[in-house]
Amino acid sequence: MSRRRKDEHIAIAKIAKIRKNDFSHIRFIHHSIPSLSLKDIDLSTSFLGHKFNYPFYINAMTGGAKKGDKINAKLAILAQHFGLPLFVGSQSLAFKNKESRLAFETLRFNFPDLFIVANINPNFTAEMASDAVEILGANALAIHVNSVQELVMGEGDRDFTKWKDNIANILKTVKVPVIVKEVGYGMHEPTLLLLQELGVKHIDISGMGGINFSLIELKRQKKKDSPLLDFGISTVDALLLARNYPSFEVLASGGINNASSIIKSLAMGAKAAGMAKYFLDLCNLPVPEMIKKVDELIIDLKKILVLLNVKSVRELNLDHLMFDL
Ligand SMILES: Cc1cc2nc3c(=O)[nH]c(=O)nc-3n(C[C@H](O)[C@H](O)[C@H](O)COP(=O)(O)O)c2cc1C
What we know:
alpha/beta, TIM Barrel, 8-stranded parallel beta sheet, two-stranded antiparallel ribbon, 12 helices, 12 strands, globular
């Protein structure tokens, strides 16, 4: 991943418009006579072996590139304020130049208490993966599996023969929880089966419905079409599929950008919901305004739980939803 490519991805993602997605085909089953008070609602949840006050996290985008570091600095302040986990973007650059490595180290230095999730690609050996965790003093590690994106990219990877073995070795070696994460294409049955076989415990199914890297790449390449546009499964479908694999702790992302899609994901079985584009857009605002927006999001989450007559996110399940897919 080059610095320029990373900056271009951010620039194009910033202007991308997210249209309606599968979440809009799910409705809530509300109580006309709820028995709860907003002030008693508990949004806390546990995932990655840690208890968090809120069931959402800042998903992987940047770090180690000029524009990205400014974004990460703002996101880190936000994460610290609310106690949210911060997933950084791919650390590949940190293995290519010292400046980038230093930028990741500085992030941890400036935010010693933050729950930071490191991010690597599956070409990393177990040794490199441990190093990526160490650079950040990371609390968890995400391995992004982005085969469709790589093949859409003109300069992307073409050889995936080591991915499976690398993931298996990383799992054996790395001391923090390891998440295998898609990047907006979702996970189908064969992927879920393989990850289960490898003993993976944490997955971010990151499905379609939000940022679409195929479209971002086409824009970069000034092309109109690609046969690979047919690849991807929606976040909602991937979440429903993942229910057949109870050994996973499931994280949801892909097109989640408001309180209702967060709650719908949790009701479908996710432990927490990740948002990348939502937080990228917030970065256009000064930090106090970003904090105000997240405060509003938290109030919205609580309002939804009151209407569902559910005191804690841990009580959410499919009975709270009506599907019109
Ligand atoms: C600008 C940008 C850069 C991203 N870079 C990474 C990355 O380095 N590593 C990764 O695992 N995912 C990366 N992603 C994918 C997101 O973490 C997420 O899986 C995807 O964008 C879908 O979520 P969203 O609809 O909330 O944006 C990136 C997303 C964006 C928008």
